[in-house]
Design goal:
This protein is mainly α.
Length: 191
């Protein structure tokens, strides 16, 4: 249901009405939920257990300290690339637009991914210094925190979708010879 709402919101960012059959939208939502689970599990493994995983690789393969240092640095860009790929996947499947080739690196996926990481980091920092959730909500505090984080995540996803849709509209206008297509002054004719 939540991913169905994301699909509706992305369609709204693209100014599209959903014309796909119900079963197709549900299948897309299910695929996106599975992708969300895989990316979340991968992020959890890389960020939370990444250090231990690197040590286990070093012990098993005997690669040494250089690999450990490489792994400690490389796991963060790998996590960002996983989020970037997920955002590109959402922006490819969710909108009800004519399918083009998937763009793994679009301005919307790049900005949305970076925004998601920044918002998640700031929210984690905020919740680590705030005890008021437990006092106010008691046993429901973890659910409230999760819903707030999902809300901030939706902001990032929708901001990236809006950015991609606006850039696509501009490209379509310029491709059709619209307002100052190409934005190049014509050469002056000599008399």
């Amino acid at each position: 249901g939540a991913m169905g709402a994301v699909i509706k919101a992305v369609n709204r960012a693209y100014n599209r009405v959903e014309t796909r059959p119900f079963w197709k939208v549900r299948a897309i939502a299910t695929v996106l939920v599975v992708a969300t689970g895989l990316v979340t599990a991968g992020m959890f493994l890389l960020i939370v257990f990444g250090g231990s995983l690197g040590e286990a690789i070093v012990k098993r393969t005997g690669l040494g300290g250089n690999f450990k240092l490489f792994w400690d640095i490389a796991r963060w860009p790998i996590a960002f690339l996983a989020v970037l790929a997920f955002f590109a996947f959402v922006y490819y499947l969710a909108p009800n637009v004519e399918r083009r080739s998937i763009r793994w690196l679009s301005p919307g996926s790049l900005v949305g991914s970076a925004m998601w990481l920044v918002l998640s980091g700031l929210f984690a920092l905020y919740t680590s210094f705030s005890d008021s959730y437990d006092k106010t909500y008691g046993a429901l505090a973890s659910g409230i925190v999760l819903l707030l984080w999902l809300n901030y995540s939706a902001f990032a996803v929708l901001f990236g979708a809006e950015l991609n849709s606006e850039l696509d509209r501009e490209a379509d206008i310029h491709a059709g010879g619209g307002p100052r297509a190409g934005l190049v002054r014509p050469a002056r004719r000599s008399r």
